[in-house]
Amino acid sequence: MNMRHIKHVYFVGIKGVAMTALALYFHGKGIRVSGSDVKEGFPTDDMLSKHKIQVLEGFTSSNINSSDNIDLLIYTGAHDGKNNPEVIRALELGIPFLPHGKALGLCMDSTKQISVAGSHGKTTTSAMIATVLSHAGKNPSYAIGCGEIFPLGSPGAYGKGEWFVAEADEYATDPKYDKTPRFLFQHPDIFAVTNIDYDHPDVYSDISAIQAAFVSMKANFRGLSIIVLNADDPNSSCLQTDPKGKIITYGSSKGSDFRILKTSFSEGKTECLYSDPDGVKRLFQLNIPGDHNVSNALCAIAALRLTGLSFDEIHDGLQSFRGSKRRFEQIGSNAHALFYDDYAHHPKEIAATLLGIRQWYPDRKIYCIFQPHTYSRTKALLEEFSTSFGDADTLVLVDIYASARESENEEMTGEILASECRKNHADVNFVHNEKGVDAFLQSKPFEKAVVVFMGAGDIYLWGKRIADSFSTKGKRT
Question: Mean pLDDT across the stretch 32-54?
Fold first, then answer.
């Protein structure tokens, strides 16, 4: 499909983070953008409103009219995928339609591509790369699945520079109808891989199936054809066999091209001493916590060096990066507690985030409020979840937030997860909903506390409301 003649793009499920990012790319290009979604709040609402992008409520065929002159309709596997009534109506009217992954790939085709993949950390790493390129005046295009990037603002943008930075998502294009991994529509010059882990049990049977998807990406390489690979991640070693293109490694492992030598943490600051491929020792600073983010930053550095930026330009850009929405985002504070929101929803992400909090705030009591996301993930990774909250002093679990792609499964509940966590954690509590969380926190005498609301569902809305309602004494006024 020729994307050059498009004047109006319609997004089915426009509030999804990946959809919003691509919508903002089109918007920045001067193309009319509209779409539809459910009524409930999303982390992208403010960004869509800021750019005055029309969002219709609900999904109905009457939203799609020939008089609107829609040139392209974009959908995802959410909201019944290509069986959504708006997609069906587009077919009836002869309006071209594409799944998000394919549309993103087509937008990237005329540029040099940095595709950032990985089970964990791809959002933060791609946001770092986009921030540094922008900070250095390279005017990149980017599409990154989050509500906002600090300090860039928009998670998606059209730039006139030569590079396009995008997350490369291994999830299925349309789970019911097309199992093709979404990243296979991209053709990267630089393929940066943060790690490979077992996730998405609704579409992948085991870790080897996910590894096979990543390996299949090699056939798409073009231009530089370079893989930036995490040497500390054993599951990523599958990409080192039958190599196509050059491999550059990073991590703390001996022999890494970019090697972590020493890290240090203090409240609000992270530092890393590393050696570059020439053996020169270098130092960078971050405004976000955790060993996992040090690793993400080194991945970004390795990729950015391939674009021609100097180490000084890269380090300056990294120091300007302040994270992204729903990635350890501070949402409130008072004299006794700091309140954060985080998107972590996989056991390894949870453990890494909580360790990062502990490294920044070793003397504070950590309260983790976790909302499990999807019955299938919770069931498949139950044992891993039960051991992932070790750095939290107090754990509060709530009901499972179901994906739009699944129905309630009584074989797995938040209470079952709580029962499993009690086998490995001394202070585990279960409440059903926001009201229960609010009441629980009201009963606690906060002194030097960190409260983190965590999960991929709607818990971020709870967290903001609860954080806003606490007085300077940690209680409601």
Answer: 93
Question: Which residue type sits at 161?
Answer: G
Q: HSE, CB side, 13 Å, CA atoms: give it for residue 111.
A: 24
Determine contact, residues 146/321, Cβ cutoff 8 Å: no
Residue 368: pLDDT band with limits 50, 70, 90: very high
Q: How many other C-beta atoms are found inside a 10 Å radius of the C-beta of residue 106?
A: 16
Kindly list the distances between the CA atom of residue 215 and the CA atoms of 17, 148, 165, 194, 348, in Å, as whole numbers in the listed order: 26, 31, 20, 14, 22
Question: Cβ(7)–Cβ(108) under 8 Å?
Answer: no
> Three-state SS for 283?
strand
Torsion from C-alpha of 37, 41, 47, 52, nearest 10 degrees: 50
Strand arrangement of the beta sheet that strand 163-168 belongs to = 156-157, 141-143, 163-168, 112-117, 190-193, 226-230, 246-251, 258-266, 269-275, 281-286
Tokens 């409301």 sit on residue: 465
Distance between CA atoms of residues 413 and 401, nearest Å = 10
Q: Is 268 helix (H, G, I), strand (E, B) or coil?
A: coil
Contact, 6 vs 72, CB < 8 A? yes
Mean pLDDT of 22-37: 97
pLDDT per residue as tens digits for the range 106-164: 999 999 999 999 998 999 999 999 999 999 999 999 999 998 999 899 999 999 999 99
User: What does the alpha-carbon distance between residue 417 and residue 399 come to, in Å, rounded to a whole number?
Assistant: 9
* Global pTM value: 0.86
Q: CA neighbours within 13 Å on the CB side: how many for 51?
A: 26
The dihedral region occupied by 455, where left means phi > 0, alpha psi between -120 and 50, and beta the remainder, is left
| Tokens matching residue 425 | 């954690």
For 241-279, the pLDDT digits (tens) are: 766 779 999 999 999 999 999 999 998 899 999 999 999
- Strand segments, DSSP code E, in 139-204 are 141-143, 156-157, 163-168, 172-174, 178-181, 190-193
Asked whether 23 and 17 are in contact (CB, 8 A), the reply is no
Query: Is cis: bond before 151, omega within 30 of 0?
Result: yes
Main-chain dihedrals φ then ψ at residue 172, nearest 5 degrees = -65, 145
